[in-house]
Amino acid sequence: MGEKKTRYEVILAGSGGQGLVLAGIMLGEAAMQEGRVVAQTQTYEAAARGGFSMAEVVVDREEILFQQVQRPDLVLALTEESMDKFAHYAREGAPVYYDTTLVKPRRMKHVEGYSFTQIASDRGNVASINVLALGAIIAKVPMVKKASMEAVLRSRFRGAALDLNLRVFAEGARLVEGR
What we know:
Layout: E1 8-15, H1 20-33, E2 37-44, E3 52-60, E4 74-77, H2 80-86, H3 88-91, E5 96-99, E6 111-114, H4 116-122, H5 129-140, H6 146-156, H7 159-177
Parallel strand pairs: 1-4, 4-5, 5-6
Antiparallel strand pairs: 1-3, 2-3
Helix pairs in contact: 1-6, 5-7, 6-7
């Protein structure tokens, strides 16, 4: 078996209100629980809800000297604007996941569409789109263990919110594991 990858880079992009910055923070927390070094940066427009929002997460076993994503292992694009901005990474071989609920269909190698917004809405809380997408991302790019992400969810949510987030996290993983 080959040597395990030590550095992972992910871009989470969409609009304010989709929880992408929180998703980046939670992904970083899960990596830190595993003793990894994390850099997480964020960009968002001043009119947060509805404007462009992006989180970049870099996870490594060594010190991170450059904190922004250079060669993403995966891009999540939840809006048309973010898809237009980051689809070029698919041509470079990085998987790009997009939300078929909000983004027009793309037929490109390394591009996969999932109805993230619709699924989250159907489960009773469209705000859980970020956790649903994290399930998909971690299933595709195992930068953290599933158990570490579940521990972060348990530390951040309680009661019905915790139950919902654990369910949608598992569902996100099942979305990509079936392909």
